[in-house]
Amino acid sequence: DLTSYGVRTTFHKIMTKKFNFNAVSHYNVPMHKEYYKIVMWGKLRGKTKKLIKELNEKFEGLSVVSSSEGFTIEITNQEATKGKGNLYVAKEFFGITDPKQIAHIGDTMNDSTVVDEKIRLIAMGNSSSQLKKLTKYRGPHYKNGGVAKILKGEYKKVD
Q1: Residues 12-46: tens digit of each pLDDT
Q2: What phi and psi values does residue 73 have, to the nearest 5 degrees?
Q3: What are the residues whose beta carbons fall under 8 Å from the beta carbon of 45, sequence distance 6 or more?
Q4: DSSP 3-state assignment of 156?
Q5: Which residue in 60, 125, 127, 152 is deepest, having the highest Cβ count within 10 Å?
Q6: Each residue of 48-66: b (16+ CB within 10 Å) or e?
Q7: Backbone φ and ψ of 117, nearest 5°
Q8: Cβ-contact 20, 2 below 8 angstroms
């Protein structure tokens, strides 16, 4: 059940349509439900970045990261990250237990959790500058087949 709560602005209408959310025009979020992921978005990157910092300081046990070029905040349990998910899939489906044998391609801070697990992160050319600071590997921009190029080995190590 993907539901978006908030004032029905043009921005809200665009985002709910783009991501196929049920739209509710109020903030009365049901508290009796169990939530696995909370996604919030806004129009100002600076305020989003500030809120991420505040949430990380106030709530232990959460993974709070940005995505969508810094406009979106994704909140999950700290055990439900892309990094831990990659480790699980690698082990269960491929028998790989050494994180150095795993690579992850990403472009926003919601991909940053793979670094915590010692997984090789290849940042797309269009990645956020924040993500690029975390990785030693860079690939081409996503346009014109960037992911396919990375899968063919077209990425470089940077210092």
Answers
A1: 788 788 878 888 877 778 788 787 888 887 778 88
A2: -115, 130
A3: 69, 70, 71
A4: strand
A5: 127
A6: beebbeeeeeeeeeebbbb
A7: -95, 5
A8: yes
